[in-house]
Specification:
The chain is an alpha+beta fold and 247 residues long.
């Protein structure tokens, strides 16, 4: 293979000099609306669920079949919890991590995403209980949540069918980063960025004035400035798990 760098230079200059329409949008439209000539600027939020110590887990030769089953169980039900929302704009798996990006024009949308994180957190308790029951190693994971007023573009190589959505801003990058902090160094699974937390807690306190929701969240010197962590679970499901998950 020989790379035609002179033609490449021409392509790059065309990209750098071409006008791009930046569309401001309260609610991010479908990703199918993206082209190579436009971009959207909108409020979005992201959730990343990342397995701890996955390098060791995946490379351990003791029982690869056990690992495959555990990872499949991890991904399949998390996708079930996160999917099907009309605010969902992208869902995927990056190695050992499941992620979803949502358009969140309202505070209530951010709260709905936190509720999904609580379902995931509770599900991981169920999964680990079942893994132990079957003699498998349990899974540790972090859940990162972040919000941002960000850009989204279509990137790749035009006319060859290789492209992807790129999220330029805080939400996706920060959610991914925060997921790496969860479930280690005394930090709970759910880790929220400062902006995500400030939007969420305002509405949580209005909806739960007698429960002091702020007490559910904690800071840590191990976390980025303003980030908080929590171990909030869905009470009915958690009680069922604690009761041994009766049929």
């Amino acid at each position: 293979m020989v790379y035609d760098y002179r033609t490449g230079k021409s392509r790059i200059e065309e990209i750098l000099s071409s006008p791009m329409a930046i569309n401001e949008s309260d609610k991010l439209p479908s990703i199918e609306n993206l082209t190579y000539e436009n971009a959207y600027h909108s409020w979005i939020s992201a959730i990343f669920i990342d397995i701890r110590n996955s390098t060791e887990m995946f490379s351990d030769s003791r029982d690869r079949e056990e690992t495959v089953r555990a990872v499949r169980a991890f991904t399949s039900e998390i996708i079930e919890i996160l999917r099907g929302d009309d605010l969902e704009r992208e869902m995927g798996i990056r190695g050992d991590c499941v992620y979803t990006v949502y358009t969140t024009p309202k505070q209530n949308d951010i709260n709905d995403l936190f509720t999904k994180a609580c379902w995931v957190n509770t599900y991981l308790k169920m999964l680990n209980s079942l893994l132990s029951k079957h003699g498998f190693d349990t899974i540790r994971a972090g859940i990162g949540l972040a919000t941002g007023h960000d850009h989204v573009i279509k990137a790749g190589r035009k006319n060859v069918g290789i492209n992807a959505t790129v999220w330029v801003g805080e939400a996706v990058a920060m959610a991914s980063k925060l997921s790496a902090y969860g479930d280690k160094n005394g930090i709970n699974r759910i880790v929220c960025s400062s902006l995500f937390y400030s939007n969420m807690i305002e509405l949580l306190e209005k909806e739960n004035p007698s429960k002091n929701p702020a007490s559910w969240f904690h800071t840590s010197p191990y976390l980025p400035s303003g980030a908080t962590h929590s171990d909030v679970v869905m009470s009915e499901m958690n009680d069922w798990i604690e009761a041994g998950m009766p049929a």
